[in-house]
Structures are given as structure tokens and as C-alpha cells.
Amino acid sequence: MFPVPKAPVQHWLIKSEPFKYSWAQLEKDGRTLWDGVRNFEARNNLRAMKEGDLCLFYHSNEGKDVVGIARVVRAAYPDPTAPGEDWSVVDVAPHKPLKLAVALDLIKSEPSLSEMQLLKRSRLSVVPVEKSHFDLILKLGKTKA
DNA sequence: GCCAACGTTGGC
DNA sequence: GCCAACGTTGGC
């Protein structure tokens, strides 16, 4: 038999204000549902996520850096915090912390990262990340996926 | 705490 | 269907 072709892992970046929900909290919880997204484009990105996809975990406002990698452990389902409305959540778990946090300043100073949606669509809380960008962030963070 | 960017809403 | 007003996000 031929091996079943595995769907390629997709890469994302999810933002949270550490005040509201930090990487440390995710590590403590072991798993969480990524709720509260109330933007159509961000929601559609959530819905495009598959189990096993990897997400850069970014602290907005405070920190302003990528601090870890989260893994999607359950694909999109209705957001329980908005009953009757058309919003979605996914479940994520900590995959690996970055050895070095990668600051927004550093990302901005890296010419090959200038096309990142994080920079171009700074107000979107869930954005896709190209694999080459994802790999470079990990490299800057001295971490292997 | 300010402000720019920008998505969303509602009046017309 | 346009567009002004408004609210929110997030960098500075």
C-alpha cells in the first residue's frame, strides 16, 4: 500500500495580551480553547486550522514578542462564549517554548520578514505565517520545532 | 495615554 | 451601496 499522504502542517501566529492569557498560563493549563475572536478574517483563519498545525504564540501590547509555539489539538468548533452566534474556537496546547523570545523590533529589523502578516495586518489576532518565516522566527529564537 | 489603522455599523 | 461615525486593537 502507498502511505497515506499527510496534509502539510500549516503555520499561524496567534496573539494574546499576556495580561489576559499568557504563554505561562497556557503551559500551566496544558491546553485551552482559543476563544473570544470577534473578527471575521481572524475567525476564518481559525476555521482553516487543522489538528497538528503550529502557531507562533505572540504577546501583544506587553512584551511584544513571540514566546512559544502552540499546537492545534482540535479543529474549529463553535465558540461557547458566543452562543447562537457564528464564531469559532480551536483548542491549542503548548508545543514548545522559544529558548529566546523573538521581539517585534527584531522581526521588523529582519528584511526577509517584512512581508509577515504580523507586520502588514497588525490588528489581526490570528494570521497565517509562511513556512520560511516560521522557520526563521524559530531560528532567531534558537529553537527547533 | 495617545493616536493611527481599520473593521463594523447604521443612516440615508 | 456609499460613507460617516464609532469602537477596538496595538504600537509607541
Question: What do these coordinates show?
Answer:
This protein is α+β, with helices and mostly antiparallel strands and 145 residues long. It has one domain (11-140): Roll (ph1033 like fold), CATH 3.10.590.10. Helix content is 25%, strand content 32%. The protein contains five helices and six strands, in the order E-H-E-H-E-E-E-H-H-E-H. The chain has helices at residues 23-29, 40-48, 104-109, 117-120, 131-140; strands spanning 11-16, 32-33, 54-59, 65-78, 88-103, 126-128. It has a six-stranded mixed sheet, with helices on both faces. The protein is globular. The mean pLDDT is 93. The protein binds a DNA duplex (12 and 12 nucleotides) through loops.
In terms of DSSP E residues, the strand content is 25-35%
**Helix and strand composition category:** alpha+beta
CATH architecture label: Roll
* Total tally of structural domains: 1
Parts with pLDDT < 50 across at least 5 consecutive residues: none
From N to C, what is the helix and strand string? EHEHEEEHHEH
Strands across the major sheet, in which order? 2-5-4-3-1-6
- Provide mean pLDDT, rounded: 93
Let me know the largest β-sheet. 6 strands, mixed
- Residue share in helices? 10-25%
Shape category: globular
Text of the CATH class: Alpha Beta
